[in-house]
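I hope you will forgive my troubling you with a question about protein structure. I am sending you one protein, given as its amino acid sequence and as whole-number tokens for its backbone shapes. Thank you for your consideration; the sequence and its tokens are set out here:
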Amino acid sequence: MRPSLTTPAPSNSIRNTPTPTTTAASPSGAKIADYTRAVELDPKYALAYYNRGVAKWGKGDIDGAIADYTRAIELDPKFTHTYYNRGVAKGAKGDIDGAIADYTRAIELDPKDARAYNDRGVAKQAKGDLDGAIADCTRVIELNPKNANAYNNRGSFKGIKGDVVGAIADVNRAIELDPKLAAAYYNRAYTKQGKGDIDGAIADYTHAIELDPRCARCYHNRGGSYFNKKQYDAAIKDLQKATEFDPKNGVNYSSLGWYQLFNRKPHESIAASLKALELSPDEAVMIKGNLAHGYLFDNQFEKAKALYLENKDAKLHDGRAFNQAVLDDFKDFQEAGITHPDMQKIKALLTTKPEQ
């Protein structure tokens, strides 16, 4: 049961580091102490709260940053940058609605704040509002026609909507404006992959990796392209890289487990699937299917049988019944020349109707 590709990637995310208005060059710790002293001397000094919030953000104290930004806003409700930075911090905490509200207020105070439009677009996409996300990116482009990130983001959102032509046009423009924008090559590769242009996708993923050698999603999706070409060794090497650079992402292990089955290494497949199950319990049905396959091909029939029967009546996220998905997988295995004598026993178990 093959996991999905990772999705298009905006160039800017709601976790971007905000730009402080101060130009002080002291370490963050010293800054925090200095700004704390400043607010002790003048409790209504909004800029000091703002800059202490920036310094706390730099130290990873997101809650502290939000508290200081909030106090700065209370003291100066028209301090545009504070709303933007608090939106960034809220987004990093997973408060997408709060982030959108703060970006919106920043835009109300400064209708030409391209950063706020861009990051609000990213936040809207996270909420599933693709039309709103595209509209915000379009506004960024109107404000700055040479903003490569905005073209890339709009292209990624168009790709999610299924507008392949629009997506490729936008990411091509992003690459023209910034040939070193790794996310644009990734998004173009993702779109090409969806169109069936596997070689073109591999080329773009490879370029993205050259620009961003630790891009786990690039390795994951390029591995998927190699898998489509039946280049299983290359696919597995890429998935191993993906797990190295993003070790807490279960989909990397799910894909690795699936590919190892076709590489005729069931023991390695079992190990990857067990790790995937630990990291991605929401995908348990799919992962247990692949784990059962691994046990079957590793001659651990009873373990395989137990998993197949345990999930027999379950549904996958794509709507298929588990037993049908297993039969589909068996067909894929047989087409790849991978068989096992006990496959017929499993087919019988999954297709036998209970007695009335």
